Amino acid sequence: MSLQKVTINDIIKKKKNGEKIVTITSYDYSFAKIVDDCGIDLILVGDSLSMVMLGYANTLSVTMDEMIHHTKAVSRGVSNALIVGDMPFLSYKIDTAEAVKNAGRFIQEGGAEAVKVEGGTEMCPTIKAMINADIQVMGHIGLTPQAIYEFGGFLVQGKTIEAAKKLILDAKNLEEAGVFSIVLESIPWQIAKLITSSVEVPTIGIGAGSYCDGQILVIHDMLGIFTDFKPKFLKYFSNLGESIRHALNDYKDEVINGIYPNREHSYEFPQQELNKINNWFENADICEEAHKIT
Fold this sequence. Notes:
With 294 residues, the protein is α/β, with parallel strands linked by helices. It has 13 helices and eight strands. The longest helix is centred in the middle third of the chain and has 17 residues, at 161-177. The mean pLDDT is 96.
């Protein structure tokens, strides 16, 4: 299926036209190619790869180099979806110039078309600097996983009046700073609905209810591959983890019992030459012949 390349303007137009935006994470060539074939609007190379691909306990351990490595792989498999690189921990909050440089690496080296930045109003100066450097930015508020030690874990945010007000104001400030969309993570759906109605840029929800302009999930979560924990918002759209285990156990059994590979899965030596090679094998001094070619 031939699709037209999705642009940031297309994402923004979808909100104006009342069309839902479908986004997903991806971290490698093979998955990215499948995702792209399905006509997904936007692929986020998320720092969640720290957990689902690299086995860390949270998103804080993944490095810029690792993020660029995976973004390169994704970009090789994508022709249609918009690719967004996720700015990892410590890559954008220490120094503005360093933040712009790191964001630029996603574009220049990784093949991404935009970056995602966690944080609210406090991040607006850095976001503006990125945009001034011609780097497009997706915002991210609510549960920002890089701040889990501040939050005390992966906890729902915006559950008090003051916290809800801050989320709404943060979203407005991010819009004014120039982001083209805002991820809303793990917040009450009523607050997500208010935010979505108050900004002109699209909102992308993950644990933020149905009133967001679009949705995103971690691909390994929704396919049932990564099952270390299951947040309330997560729905398993498949159980590939179990299917993979069944396949691997079948493979193991067939190898052990000599069933695989059979002739169907084996290459044939030319029959007319087979007697010659067998005769040579039976009569030659293999060690002596081997020494002759060293």
